């Protein structure tokens, strides 16, 4: 639909930016922090760094928050490293780790920046992993106790809470991310059992949040993106429908409605992947209710009907580790209408609008985007980073938020990835996303100096005009 006049962004719109603990903090073993599955990783894709120093935000958070304030952020979405708070996952609390996030949150609040706290962003404590990780139901209890500590410590400072970042990506691409490991025979069944336990953990943490912090708001943070059929062949449309249910709605239906999406459940049963559901689990799932939906969006996916053989599988761009397609279910297809970024990821601003519409249409809960952004090989030259390609990407996506608002979708915030350069989940330090450049190479830490990119100044004036400068 085209509008003669677009709706304005709400006056209290949360213009923000995002990071996650393991990608930005560094200081991986400082001040009593325990190892996470990310720290325990020994293998990284050729030519890419580990996460041990990252952007050294742990030591430079005050300088970074001052820059975020200069950027004009109204909100900052970050994650807490579970292993700083409870180093072995379910034992004693580490006061120094607790203090770090108090200091960070206090610094944000002092600058008028709303903290949006993710409890768990891929970095499961290694000790819990060695006891079976999410396949072990004890991890559910450990997560709930961890969330209790967070509510007790930060509950009077933090209003917006996110449970689990991209649970769906951990299940679908856990090996690439280095999170949810499972191997051999029964691998997928094991993953969907882990998935079920994460749903239980999330539901209990949401219920506990409402019990302990009646003023707070909490929601899930999956990666949601619209699925296109490669053609109007009804078989392609059915495949798109199937994949939409399994990739997207399975996760939001559980979070919002506390029940398994019927089509996704049929897929699990058909393939023998269905998790064991204990007595009482369904009640637990029903009792967890989100106040909003946070979601990450990078690009849509295009799929066709399966041909039933290995030609269904397609590698995403230069990203050898991410394979699209599942033999017998759907075929990964290229979308000839979309440009690609330097890593072969599709760029699809209009798909962002259809994704927002679809989520709103299904759940009618307020939306916040907690990730969206462009990974690129930025160049620091003469003290400047001219990242006009990032400005274009962000402008085009923010325009779609305004269109979605005009469509009647309720969106209350936008936190692009990333506030500052950090280490990509599986493509190293050279793949940059931030508004602020961090001077380091893949293996040479240089001086880690911060430099404002051109996108920094662009986003600042956009925030300053509450989105008004989009029209200029
Ligand atoms: C999301 C993750 C982020 C971040 C982002 C960009 O899946 O939640 O942690 O890494 O993707 O992905 P990448 O770093 O692989 O480019």
What is this entry, summarized?
With 472 residues, the protein is α/β, with parallel strands linked by helices.
Description:
Helix 8 (187-212) crosses helix 11. The protein starts with 13 loop residues before the first strand and ends in an 8-residue tail after the last helix. An eight-stranded parallel sheet has the order 5-4-3-2-1-13-12-7. Strands 6-8-11-10-9 form a five-stranded mixed sheet, with helices on one face. A hairpin with a 3-residue loop joins strand 10 and strand 11 (330-333). The protein has helices at 21-24, 57-71, 82-85, 95-110, 126-130, 138-154, 167-177, 187-212, 234-257, 262-270, 281-287, 349-363, 388-407, 454-464; strands at residues 14-18, 75-79, 114-120, 160-165, 217-221, 227-229, 293-296, 301-304, 314-316, 319-326, 330-333, 367-371, 411-414, 436-438, 450-452. The chain is α/β, with parallel strands linked by helices and 472 residues long. The mean pLDDT is 96. It binds 6-O-phosphono-beta-D-galactopyranose. 6-O-phosphono-beta-D-galactopyranose binds at residues 20, 23, 165-166, 169, 223, 296, 371, 375, 417, 424-427, 431.
């Amino acid at each position: 639909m085209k509008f003669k006049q677009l709706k304005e962004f709400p006056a209290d719109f949360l213009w923000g930016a995002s990071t996650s603990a393991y990608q930005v903090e560094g200081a991986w073993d400082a001040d009593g922090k325990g190892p996470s599955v990310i720290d325990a990783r020994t293998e990284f894709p050729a030519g890419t760094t580990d996460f041990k120093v990252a952007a050294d935000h742990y030591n430079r958070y005050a300088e970074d928050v001052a820059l975020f304030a200069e950027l004009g952020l109204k909100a900052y979405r970050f994650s807490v490293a579970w292993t700083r708070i409870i180093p072995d996952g379910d034992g004693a609390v580490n006061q120094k780790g607790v203090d770090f996030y108090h200091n960070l949150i206090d610094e944000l609040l002092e600058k008028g920046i709303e903290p949006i706290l993710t409890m768990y962003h891929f970095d499961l404590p290694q000790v819990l992993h060695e006891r079976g990780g999410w396949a072990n139901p004890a991890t559910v209890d450990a997560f709930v106790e961890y969330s209790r500590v967070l509510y007790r410590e930060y509950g009077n400072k933090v209003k917006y809470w996110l449970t689990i970042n991209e649970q769906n990506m951990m299940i679908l691409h856990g090996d690439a991310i280095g999170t949810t490991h499972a191997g051999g025979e029964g691998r997928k069944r094991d993953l969907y059992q882990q998935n079920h336990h994460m749903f239980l953990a999330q539901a209990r943490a949401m219920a506990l949040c409402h019990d302990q912090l009646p003023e707070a708001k909490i929601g899930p943070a999956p990666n949601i993106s619209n699925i296109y059929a490669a053609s109007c062949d009804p078989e392609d449309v059915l495949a798109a429908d199937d994949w939409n249910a399994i990739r997207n709605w399975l996760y939001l239906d559980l979070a919002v409605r506390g029940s398994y999406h019927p089509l996704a459940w049929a897929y699990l049963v058909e393939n023998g992947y269905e998790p064991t559901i204990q007595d009482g689990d369904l009640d637990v799932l029903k009792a967890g209710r989100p106040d909003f939906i946070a979601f990450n969006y990078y690009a849509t996916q295009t799929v066709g009907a399966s041909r039933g053989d290995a030609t269904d599988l397609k590698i995403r761009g230069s990203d050898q580790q991410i394979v699209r397609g599942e033999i017998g279910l759907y075929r990964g297809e290229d979308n000839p209408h979309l440009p690609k970024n330097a890593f072969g990821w599709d760029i699809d601003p209009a798909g962002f609008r259809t994704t927002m519409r679809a989520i709103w249409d299904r759940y009618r809960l307020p939306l916040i985007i907690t990730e969206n952004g462009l990974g690129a090989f930025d160049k620091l030259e003469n003290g400047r980073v001219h990242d006009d390609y990032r400005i274009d990407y962000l402008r085009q996506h923010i325009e779609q938020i305004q269109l979605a608002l005009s469509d009647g979708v309720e969106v209350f915030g936008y936190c692009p990835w990333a506030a500052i350069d950090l280490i990509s989940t599986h493509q190293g330090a050279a793949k940059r996303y931030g508004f602020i450049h961090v001077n380091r190479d893949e293996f040479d830490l240089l001086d880690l100096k911060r430099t404002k990119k051109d996108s920094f100044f662009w986003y600042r004036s956009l925030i300053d005009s509450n989105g008004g400068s989009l029209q200029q």
